[in-house]
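Everyone, carefully examine this protein record:
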Amino acid sequence: MPKPKLTKTGIPYLDFAWNVTSGCSWAGAGCDNCYAKDLHDKRHKALKAGKAMPSCYGEPFSTIQLHEDRLQAVLTRRKPAVIGVCFMSDLFHPGVPSRFIDQVFAIMARCHQHRFVILTKRPKRMKQYIEGLFACARAEHSARAERKVPYDDDCVNVMLSHYSNLDVDRKWPLSNVMFGTTVWDQASADENIPHLLHTPAAARFVSYEPAVGLANLNQIDTEGGVYHALNGRVSVEGRGMAECAGLDWVVMGCEKLAGNNPGRPMEWDWAADVIIQCGKAKVPFYLKQLDVNGRVAENEFQGSGGLDCPDFFNLGGA
């Protein structure tokens, strides 16, 4: 049996994709015209028509599939790389068991030479999972501080088994994992970004794509206050301003359909507003794609320095 390999990807800020799950379901208007669903549906139809296709296309996109055979793909690559995790599905979909996510995190913890990028439309579950994982590891570490062998609980092993010491507070969150969430308008930003900001993480980003509505990332309204996500501050009525986690990166782009055609319209002014906001906050911004005269222009909007990424992507220290 051939060794599992990482998938090359056309996403500019990634070297490879690590698609250990397949399938997803609708999570909001940002999922309309989903590229992953469209591709899967076409290949599913082709397989049913007798064409040779990978077995994962034997199931419809609505079926969540776990590809345990692909988990080892990362371990076979020693050279540092930036790797996108489940960019064709969602690692934190409710159909993905926590024990499977445990395995993914265990491997990311072991492969400290790589940078892993996780993007989800379900940041609430991501936050709950990460908080639970951390709490479990700290409790076990505190109770068995002198233990030097693997624990029975896989959740604890995710945190501890691949480190030479058991310094949980210093080793968590994993320094080589960036968490991100997708937004597409103000309502989705108000819903998703607070969960992301409250998720323990080495770095956080927002993928404002497809941008089908205006979103002010420094005006995230919630019942608990107004988050200024780019500045790392939250305004709470009656309490004034307080510091909170902020965004380390923003990616933005219009909706792209098959044939490089634009989908729902994205206004130039939306991009201009976010560019100004990010510039003032000194947060790296990447305008991935934009509708220019009826075609989707990609990677044409950066300065001579090329893709504007945060320090997280620097592999030199890996």
